[in-house]
Structure formats: structure tokens, C-alpha cells
Specification:
Blueprint (H helix, E strand, L loop, with lengths): L2 H5 L8 H42 L6 E4 L4 E7 L3 E6 L4 E6 L3 E4 H48 L1
Length: 153
């Protein structure tokens, strides 16, 4: 059976048992399509919304944030559903709602610093392992050379 035969409606009197099979396959395809849409569109969007909500709930006093309007400021006060931020050199204060927070720049900088430190530690460990392997290789060559010298004499 190909896809076109499954999608085509069955004809009148000859479609008794075949019509029921075609209808059930159509339902299966609809369910499969919905499942694909759920896993490709809806689930990632919900995951992203949860991450954004967690970021907004974890905003602390002293964090530098960016709002959805592009305003950058430092958090002065945190309330249940709003924040007061300072912006600019003259420290203007603004009250914004938490849902207007687009990014927590301080948390992003900390996460980037941690990633960089982990990367440097991994590179240092790799370099140390390579040096250790090179030293072991040199020691092995020296042993082999000594054995060759003893056979020559």
C-alpha cells in the first residue's frame, strides 16, 4: 500500500470491509501526525517556557538584566511579580514586571565563566595526559635502546 491509496476515499458499494480498514489507517495517521507535532513543536516550546520562568524566578538583587524592550539595568528590589531596577549613570529607577525580563546577564556571565573554566581544565588535563604519554614513550625507547646495546656487546 502506498500513501496515496491510504489517503484516497474508498468507493460506494465495493468499499464495505475496505472502508473500515481505510478509516482506521486514517485515524492512525492522524494520531501519528499529532504525536510528531507534539514532539517537534509543543514540547520544546514548553521546555523553553519553563527555563525562562526559572530564570525569572531566580533573579536576585544585584543582577544585571535585560528587558524585552532592550533596557539594561541592575536589580534593586525583588517582589513577588515585579522588580525595581536602576538604569543609566544617574541611577533612574524603574518598576517592571518579572515577565518583562528577557535575560539575566549576570547569570549568563557566570555560566559562561564556568564553561570556560571547565574547558580550560579539560585542556590542561588533556595536555598533562599527552605529556605523560610522551614521557612514558621516551622511557620505553631508552629501555629498548639499552637492550639493543647489551645485545651488540
Amino acid at each position: 500500500m502506498n500513501f496515496i491509496n491510504l489517503m484516497a476515499p474508498t468507493g460506494g458499494a465495493a468499499g464495505g470491509a475496505g472502508g473500515a480498514a481505510g478509516g482506521s489507517s486514517m485515524i492512525i495517521m492522524m494520531v501519528a501526525l499529532f504525536a510528531i507535532m507534539y514532539f517537534m513543536m509543543i514540547r520544546p516550546q514548553k521546555k523553553k517556557q519553563k527555563e525562562e520562568q526559572a530564570m525569572r524566578d531566580n533573579v536576585q538583587i544585584g543582577d544585571e538584566i535585560t528587558t524585552i524592550g532592550g533596557i539594561i539595568g541592575r536589580v534593586v528590589t525583588v517582589k513577588e511579580d515585579s522588580l525595581i531596577i536602576e538604569t543609566g549613570a544617574d541611577r533612574n529607577k524603574m518598576k517592571i514586571t518579572k515577565w518583562a525580563v528577557s535575560a539575566n546577564n549576570t547569570a549568563n556571565e557566570k555560566a559562561e565563566a564556568e564553561r570556560q573554566a571547565a574547558k580550560e581544565a579539560a585542556e590542561a588535563a588533556k595536555k598533562a595526559k599527552m605529556e605523560e604519554a610522551a614521557d612514558a614513550s621516551k622511557a620505553k625507547r631508552k629501555k629498548t635502546k639499552k637492550k639493543d646495546d647489551t645485545f651488540d656487546s
